[in-house]
Design a protein that fits this description.
Number of strands: 0
Shape: globular
CATH architecture of the largest domain: Up-down Bundle
Helix content: over 70%
Structural class: mainly alpha
CATH class of the largest domain: Mainly Alpha
Length: 451
């Protein structure tokens, strides 16, 4: 699934213009096709991380993979934008279950001395999916339509279930005696939906009200977590654990800065440069290929060198690449775009696995599920912030109109502004990464079947 989910996400970015043409969807509605999936993942990541610690990480992973696979099939069968949005939400729930457990399972199996290497390989699988997604997605969209991108997930999901059942032995349970805080999870979900939906609706007044409601719900959630015996989110993980806090903040900043790059460049290449989906996919493949190559190396380095050094170096390259993208225009060459993507790929490939290694190594093994879900939560929150910023800029510069030649100038201004904001966020992430201090692994692997 580390390959399948990013394959689908990157493939969908290529398919968006065709989906928009078939359903007559506006630029903002097209953005919601990406955002709805991410929002659902964000709502369910943390609760399922806790459920994985209680009932078993492998069990939740299998259930999530099955749900994701079924939802992918349903996405390909719908005949309206509204139904596609609903099935994307279901798909996001399944993805949340997978994201909450995959890193925890790997961390449970391997000792701290090999954790960076294994996480690097896992991240490389993610980037491999992201790499082939734009190209194969472009080929499939042109040959068989946008539905083919969703259908490709079905055999991948079935294969994952089969391999997990037959090859992954044992189960890993971190907190078998805990109870699940359903009420707290519901409040958390309300907070996430209100905050992210409100942010996406700015600068409208209703957006500000939703953000206020989300902040109130978040405050209620935090207070509740501090008072109950078995919280969904262990607040003690944040008390005096500078590595855990700042590593998560660095991840949030990095994903918020980079998650909309493929979306914006896909639109730029197809609308401004008049490339076909397949041609745009060939250009976009440059970034994840570099990420795939450098992530295992960075993971191994983080087993020997402090994560803050490796990860901060990666974020510096990312900031450079984003700054270069602020110069995009109608006359920008494809070669320049590819160079920007190569720099971004180098930066993110160096950053991701060392930062994840630092997060997982800073907590006790009974909290691996929650820590893994926090890794995923920072990713989807960053993606939501990134896409939310894009939606705000589209609303300010383009409104509800479709992206036509009459709006190309406004589209370019909004795109350059988005990249400038992303570069600033990345610079702030570098500060958090450098300030985290030394990372220390707390415990070794959990034996298979541990209860």
């Amino acid at each position: 699934m580390s390959f399948a989910t990013p394959f689908m996400i990157s493939g969908i970015n290529i398919a968006l213009p065709m989906i928009g043409a078939e359903f007559g969807a506006s630029a903002i509605l097209l953005t919601w096709l990406s955002t709805s999936y991410t929002l659902a993942s964000a709502v369910f990541l943390l609760p399922f991380g806790k459920l994985a610690d209680i009932y078993g990480r492998k069990r939740i992973f299998l259930a999530g993979t099955g749900l994701y696979t079924v939802a992918s099939l349903l996405c390909a069968l719908v005949h309206s934008t509204e139904m596609l949005l609903i099935t994307r939400v279901i798909q996001g729930i399944g993805a949340g279950m997978v994201f909450a457990t995959s890193t925890a399972i790997l961390t449970s199996v391997y000792p701290p001395s090999e954790r960076g290497k294994v996480l690097g390989i896992n991240v490389a699988a993610v980037y491999l999916g992201t790499s082939v997604g734009p190209f194969l997605g472009g080929v499939m969209v042109e040959a068989w339509g946008w539905q083919s991108v969703f259908l490709a997930n079905v055999p991948l999901g079935l294969a994952t279930v089969a391999l997990t059942v037959t090859r992954v032995q044992g189960e890993w349970v971190g907190s078998p005696g805990d109870t699940f805080d359903l009420a707290g999870s519901a409040v958390y979900g309300v907070a996430v939906v209100a905050l992210m939906t409100g942010f996406s609706q700015l600068p409208a007044v209703r957006g500000a009200w939703l953000i206020l409601a989300g902040l109130v719900a978040a405050a209620v959630f935090v207070v509740r977590q501090g008072r109950i015996a078995h919280p969904v989110l262990e607040l003690r993980l944040f008390r005096g654990n500078r590595v855990f806090i700042l590593s998560n903040l660095a991840a949030l900043a990095n994903y918020a800065a980079t998650s909309s790059v493929a979306f914006l460049l896909s639109l730029y290449l197809q609308y401004i440069k008049a490339l076909t989906p397949r041609e745009a996919g060939v250009v976009l493949i440059a970034q994840p290929i570099v990420q795939c190559l450098f992530s295992p190396l960075a993971g191994r380095l983080s087993d020997r060198i402090e994560a803050r050094v490796v990860a901060s170096t990666g974020m510096a390259f990312t900031a450079i690449g984003l700054t270069m993208l602020t110069l995009l225009g109608e006359g920008t060459s494809q070669a320049y775009v590819i160079v920007c993507l190569l720099v971004l790929g180098l930066g993110f490939g160096i950053f991701s696995s060392p930062n994840t290694n630092a997060i997982m190594g800073s907590v006790e093994r009974r909290y691996y599920g929650v820590a893994s879900s926090m890794v995923g939560t920072m990713r989807v929150f960053g993606q939501m912030l990134s896409m939310g910023t894009t939606m705000i800029l589209f609303a300010l510069y383009i409104g509800q109109a479709q992206i036509t030649p009459a709006y190309y100038d406004r589209f370019l201004v909004s795109t350059r502004t988005a990249f400038a904001i992303a570069a600033v966020l990345c610079a702030l992430g570098i500060l958090a990464s450098l300030a985290r201090g030394r990372a220390h692994a707390l415990e070794g692997p959990t034996p298979a079947g541990a209860r």
